[in-house]
């Protein structure tokens, strides 16, 4: 593993440096540390403003598919295409441990308290326990139920339940104490690419190649959001009244308190597909990953940060470019979006 000092990044634009798609994104609640994981085989650490701090290269690893910071904010877990999970010290970039238990590409990893969950192409959700005050990750259980690859997992705050999304068109809720599936959510007609809890955990949002959906915690459908293009990621706003969706050409914000959802904002500043997002809740900042395709000679893989408020919704920070389209406003950008095709999650999962 190779460690690069911050001096190696002098003059680099904020949140830029990856050379391929960014699907992993995690941060501390106060936005002091942001980590991105990329198909270029690296994880990169940034401060909250996008200044590079550390680059961790995974030799012989084609993809770093997901990253998650542990609760104390000093250690990082990466999920990789070589079937492994790895644990790093984020101050030094030092490798603290690695585990090979999956039988294929690991797509996703999540952590809450001392519980870690990982999943991927082998269709199995593996539940791990991190031993307190150690760097030891112990396999607790292998849970089966999905019929195709699992591409996303989320754990609730109490670490009692996990939520998974799969290209088999379903979501599943797992009881992490009884170690069993307790609910299967059916409604998507195509692959489900992402899932997330609301902050109060009363609702679930999922998105995929056909639409986005908001579910009640008991698995009943609250509303369906019809999308004109596939979506790769989605999150509730801090208040839970809105859902932010990242699709192949933009970010969109939807009001979802009523049975009929309404789009209230569209943001096109990524100039291409949006592939991942994460909230720094204490700072009311949303970080999004995507690819800027505005330069026809070279794609730029980058992370952007947005300030959130109930009135203005998402406001892009650190950019002179403004291409927001607020629904109901007479002012819209005349510049057309240059939409590109992100790697097909379902195709990659099926590989």
SSE diagram, text form:
Blueprint lengths: L1 E3 L17 E6 L5 E6 L3 E6 L4 E6 L6 E6 L5 E6 L3 E6 L5 E6 L5 E7 L2 E6 L4 E6 L6 E7 L6 E6 L5 E6 L3 E6 L4 E7 L5 E6 L5 E6 L2 E6 L4 E6 L4 E6 L5 E6 L3 E5 L6 E6 L6 E7 L4 E8 L7 E10 L3 E4 L7 E3 L18 H6 L1
Q: What's the short version?
A:
The protein has 351 residues and is mainly beta. Helices cover 2% and strands 52% of the residues.
Number of helices: 1
**Beta-strand segment tally:** 30
Major sheet summary line: 5 strands, antiparallel
Percent strand equals: over 45%
Helix content: under 10%
**Straight-line N-to-C gap:** 27 Å
Low-confidence stretches: 1-11, 320-341
Give the overall silhouette: globular
Descriptors:
351 residues, mainly beta, 5-stranded antiparallel β-sheet
Please explain how this structure is put together.
By secondary structure, the chain is an all-beta fold. Helices cover 2% and strands 52% of the residues. The protein contains one helix and 30 strands. The protein has one helix at 345-350, and strands spanning 2-4, 22-27, 33-38, 42-47, 52-57, 64-69, 75-80, 84-89, 95-100, 106-112, 115-120, 125-130, 137-143, 150-155, 161-166, 170-175, 180-186, 192-197, 203-208, 211-216, 221-226, 231-236, 242-247, 251-255, 262-267, 274-280, 285-292, 300-309, 313-316, 324-326. The longest helix has 6 residues, at 345-350.
